[in-house]
Amino acid sequence: MGFEVDFLPVGDGEKGGDAIALRYGKLDGTRSEQVVIVIDGGTKESGEDLVKHIIKYYKTEHVDKVISTHPDADHSSGLTVILEKLKVDCLWLHRPWEHAQDIKDAFKNGRITGKGLKESIKKSLENAYELETIAKRKEIPIVEPFSDLSKKDDQLIILGPSEEFYESLLPNFRETPKPKEAVAWPEKLVILTKEAVKWIAETWGMETLTDPEEGETSAENNTNTILFLQLNGKKFLFTSDAGIEALNNAIDKAESLGINLREVGFLQIPHHGSKHNVGPTILNHIIGEKLQEQKHLKTAYVSAPKNGDPKHPSRKVVNAFKRRGAEVYATKGSKKYHHVNGK
Q1: Among 147, 184, 223, 239, which has the minimal tally of Cβ within 10 Å of its Cβ?
Q2: pLDDT at 142 over 50
Q3: Plot region of 333 (φ>0 → left; ψ -120 to 50 → alpha; else → beta)
């Protein structure tokens, strides 16, 4: 079974997002022998680029699954273009407004109704709501991707969030009514040039990256859909903008399914390489302990804007991944980054 994974750059300056296309199966076979998936679509411009990319390189206008990892515009708005211009079999999308009745008691205004809260959330998350509207109009089935649905033998496994964790974060979404109090965090939680991210001046044994404090990642980012893909022994992890709490929960879910994340050979660095989303403790769980010497044991990708971003990826984060055997590549400076194993 062959595979291709393509990260397209999103945004300019310090504003970036994710736009990922992948396919697997018999790559030199017919379309019916392949699976095509889109994970996030970046901006509207990125969505247009993804459509062109899929048609040109995957030679199809048919996408099996479109996945919106979370409602931020730099990830979700481009997916509206995918839904409008390509044939899509299924949309994975969290619909926070559908949980309004279950969480209405968490808000300060005791008079708020489930219906009122539902409309408030829809308004504040218009990009996500637009995806739902298009999907309904085009009769595209919608699935809310919660880890509760996952089974060990699934090819594509949802490691997070659980529905319970998701609902605990909703009251802290931006622009929603003010919650009664901060919600407590769970206790645990065609190939182009590859641009490798360089090592900066740090000694191999001295790690300056520290574990972030809980709450440094927004509620929206911690509701990210975290995905684990397994293909004939090869394992992939897609993290989008997930933070410490979300990643800890994903680790627990993986362990409950008998999945060893240290065996992942390809992984996405969370939130464009931000030092607020990962630390040594998390990396020890999902990559492994620090090595005595530099080795290339796995590949890590980070999404960055077309012209680069002085803050992302954090060089401390890059170094921490390298210490654990990951070669790090960024979309910065290239039209796409392409990872392939052949046929």
Answers
A1: 184
A2: yes
A3: left
